[in-house]
Amino acid sequence: MQDLMYQGKFLATQTYRPIETFTVLVLFYLAVAFPVGQLVGWLERRRGIAG
Fold this sequence. Notes:
The chain is mainly alpha-helical. Helices cover 86% and strands 0% of the residues.
């Protein structure tokens, strides 16, 4: 994830469009993190692990 942020910062400085660049990065992060969080929650409930 660190490399993705570095690339985003680099792209934002090259294009002078930081709002658009970081918005896309946040949306990408949410598109990855939210389903993973849901999957982990489901696995915890299925195995009876206290979260």
